[in-house]
Design brief:
By secondary structure, the chain is mainly beta. The protein has a domain of about 180 residues: TolB, C-terminal domain (Neuraminidase). It contains seven helices and 35 strands. The strands form eleven sheets. The protein has a five-stranded antiparallel sheet with strand order 1-2-35-34-33. It has a four-stranded antiparallel sheet with strand order 9-10-11-12. A four-stranded antiparallel sheet has the order 13-14-17-18, with no helix packed on it. The relative contact order is 0.11.
Length: about 475
């Protein structure tokens, strides 16, 4: 354990040394990419790859892209070493997920790979690339901070390996729990414009991080998914553990059809709850980001949890994305599947306050030791904070970092111990115009909580790392 901590600390020192000139407010840029690349079985994918390239066996060998119908053994180490005889992708109907026909011959189209989520777990950064276009080799990936931290733009490695990674259709964000597990929602949907394909049922998927094996795939029930477009809105997951690991709960916001799916691991059961607070605010649906003007109607987007209170439950703070308001509810309410039938159920939810004009936010995260919530504000190209011990209003919101280019659409924010990790990805320009691949488009930042909030309205008494 001491050796691992030493490796992680050394890796972060190397990263920080290499990035000393690249700061944003009190955030440090850790990685940045013009376009993503992948490292798969000793091969670095630097340019587009199509299945039409494999007609000629000699070309297959020259490209070092080896296709095989043989499934790997359980002991295959797909992402390690330069053994060119190992297959890096299963071009066969036996494959867990995508085959060349389903992807119209596209294996890797570099421009289409847009990162969405970031999550730090010890030495690894998990980075997700949802399948919103063709040509995405792996939707869940990782970077080793100790191995890859010297590069500003390291290649992504499929998690846990390329064969098993392709059992996942599309994942927006991951979250790790205190029991050494990585949680995610596989939407099961290839969101190809004009040709969406529901490849498999949307499901909660959990990996054991110590063995890198999948330990659960829970397909949602039909009552959880009220419409065909619901899976497009299952973009985040929040894990709640207040007792034994096998009694965990998970909360999955549905931003498209305005609901919340609650999952109980002990009962292996799920249920859907609805509330008016889950809907978007039509007065906050106009956006101007990355030079693009548009309207969005995204509802409940992010949930973050306080520490357990005297009753053993937490306060769940949440907000719609097309909104500047914040709301809350006790997790005791969410965990009780029968309460939603009460005639005054709506009274169990609370309006917390308004962050201010232009403060629409994707993800937010709670830091327990300071009682501060951090917001990824897409409306202001900013990261902000609020101390939950104060009233939520514009005067009690502090802007910690702001930049129209380098923080254009902060797509993910996660608090890990005393660190805040942020991903920004210029999504609106990708969706409505075109990225300039000669400039940096995707960024990952890290900030130390104590440093970030020092001297702001978010700080009360300092805590020490």
């Amino acid at each position: 354990m001491i050796k691992l901590v030493h490796i992680v600390c050394l890796s972060l020192m190397l990263v920080t040394t290499n990035q000393q000139q690249r700061t944003l407010g009190k955030f440090q840029e850790i990685f940045a990419w013009k376009q993503l690349t992948y490292y798969i079985n000793g091969i670095q994918l630097l340019q587009d790859r199509f299945s039409e390239d494999i007609v000629d066996r000699s070309k297959r060998q020259a490209d070092r892209l080896i296709f095989s119908d043989d499934l790997p053994s359980e002991n295959s180490t797909w992402n390690e070493g330069p053994d060119n005889d190992r297959p890096i992708w299963q071009a066969t109907t036996q494959s867990p997920f995508v085959n060349p026909d389903e992807e119209a011959g596209r294996f890797f189209i570099q421009y289409n790979n847009l990162p969405m989520g970031v999550e730090r777990v010890a030495d690894r950064l998990f980075i997700t690339v949802p399948r919103r276009r063709y040509g995405i080799p792996s939707t869940v990936n990782y970077i080793s901070l100790s191995r890859d931290g010297r590069s500003r733009s390291p290649a992504l490695r499929p998690y846990p390996d390329i064969a098993r990674a392709r059992s996942l259709a599309s994942v927006y964000r991951t979250r790790a729990d205190t029991c050494g597990r990585l949680w995610m929602v596989d939407t099961g949907l290839m969101e190809i414009p004009g040709n969406p394909q529901q490849i498999q049922p949307p499901a909660i998927v959990i990996y054991d991080l110590s063995t890198n094996t999948q330990i659960l795939r829970y397909p949602f029930k039909s009552t959880d998914i009220p419409a065909a477009n619901t899976p497009t809105g299952l973009a985040s997951i929040t894990v709640d553990i207040t007792g034994p690991c096998d009694e965990a709960f998970a909360y999955v916001p549905d931003l498209t059809t305005y609901g919340l799916i609650v999952y109980s691991m002990l009962d292996n059961n799920s249920w859907r709850v609805t509330h008016n607070y889950f809907h978007f605010n039509p007065l906050a649906g106009n956006f101007r980001i990355s030079g693009e003007n548009f309207q969005w109607s995204d509802g409940i987007f992010s949930i973050t949890l306080t520490e357990p209170e005297a009753d053993g439950c937490r306060t769940a703070y949440f907000h719609p994305m097309a909104s500047t308001q914040e709301f809350s509810v006790s997790t005791c309410v969410l965990k009780n599947s029968s309460l939603s039938s009460m005639s005054d159920y709506y009274r169990l939810y609370s309006y917390v306050g308004n962050r201010g004009e232009g403060s629409q936010s994707t993800m937010h995260g709670y830091h327990a030791r300071s009682s501060v919530i951090f917001f990824a504000e897409i409306g202001r190209d900013a990261i902000s904070c609020w101390n939950t011990g104060t009233a939520l209003n514009p005067a009690n919101i502090a802007i910690l970092a702001r930049d129209r280019q380098r923080l254009s659409y902060p797509s993910d924010l996660h608090v890990s111990n005393d660190e805040v990790w942020v991903m920004s990805n210029t999504l609106p320009r990708f969706g409505y115009s075109r990225l300039d691949t000669n400039e940096y488009n995707f960024y990952i930042y890290r900030g130390i909580v104590n440093d970030l909030i020092s001297g702001t309205v978010c700080s009360t008494l300092p805590f020490y790392n």
